[in-house]
Amino acid sequence: MGGDSTHHWQGVLNCALDAVGHTPLIKLQRIREQEGMKCNLLGKCEFFSAGGSVKDRIAKRMVEHAEKTGVLFPGQSIVIEPTSGNTGIGLALACAIKGYQCIITLPAKMSLEKEVMLRALGAEIVRTPTEAAWDSPESHIGIARKLQKSMPGAVILDQYSNPQNPLAHYFGTYEEIMTSNLPNKSISVLVAGAGTGGTITGIGRAIRDNEAKRTTILAVDPEGSILGGGEPGTYQVEGIGYDFFPEVLDPNPPVVDQWIKTNDEEAFAMTKRLIRTEGLFVGGSSGSALSGAIRYLHSSAGQAIADDPTANVVVILPDGVRNYMSKEWFLETAKSAQKDAENEGSGEKLKDTIRGILGRDLGDVSSVVREAEREDQKLENGEGVHVVNGQAD
């Protein structure tokens, strides 16, 4: 495949859609070292995309293809999409720029942040019961179909069956990975979470069609999803897993070599670790993908790759934590980080140092106010700082 070797944006772009994709591959050096691995552990950081997720890619491609083929008509068509949120944000972004009305049907468990972002982009939101099976008339899919049938000009682009979904990754995401500065220019292991399956199917097919060297392709889904086997159930991680098999998903070899099941606890723990250790503000499904990758690399099947300093292990990190900051699992992050630091002793030592410098507890501002009152100081310009002619003295 051809294409340029640029992995982020350069120069002046025409609109936000030009900032979709072209996301960086970032070495996960610290986690690799902590795990005792020698391979190149790399994260494809999709939260750098304009709408904040890997789904921007398919939204842009589906809309543009629908325009080219006469499915969408500017000023007339209404875009409706059932989604767990990120595809909706990508579509709402495209619709805002191109002037389409947009309706998103969204299961109730999906985060408030996703709804806020969708509304900010001008989309209308319909929440549906999380418990509703995919083929229920009350599911996000059922409600979308009901609306589409009753609204003139309404179109469901349907990420679950639209071939442009995997094609966005076949022609885009894969090419970006291969034109990165990869050692040996080959992928030893590719790991991605699976929801609609477009990401893993598109990249997997591109690898099979273009790579001479054998690549192991791992799909990750949560316990409670049937994609990788097992009975349907509930789980909190968003954006991956389903209780049905989407049409665009190719779940078997030679596209997917192995399925790995993860649970909420390990997914969220790894997400927090990615944020704290690597400084990458990723969401829960990124934790799922990386925890699955690490489990495989520590297995008998993956140990040789983990020990190979020339091996490239690429993990797709689908979105950022922006959409989950009100979720309980994320709100616990600061508390758990503080507790870990205190257990190590470093937290209290640093606090003691700061207390010694300031002469007060870190969260105590009342003593500052009382001291200012005693000294007849005003605090409008800062904590007892007097500003004269724009200069602090």
From TrEMBL:
Which InterPro entries is this protein grouped with? Cys_Synth/Cystath_Beta-Synth, P-phosphate_BS, TrpB-like_PALP, TrpB-like_PALP_sf
Ranges of Basic and acidic residues composition bias in the record:
373-383
Q: In which pathway does it act?
A: Amino-acid biosynthesis; L-cysteine biosynthesis; L-cysteine from L-homocysteine and L-serine: step 1/2
Stretches for region Disordered: 373-393
Please list the residue ranges annotated as the Tryptophan synthase beta chain-like PALP domain. 18-319
**UniProt KW keywords:** Pyridoxal phosphate
Gene Ontology BP annotations: cysteine biosynthetic process from serine
* Gene Ontology molecular function: any one: cystathionine beta-synthase activity
How is this protein named in the record? Answer: cystathionine beta-synthase
Q: Which organism is it from?
A: Kwoniella heveanensis BCC8398
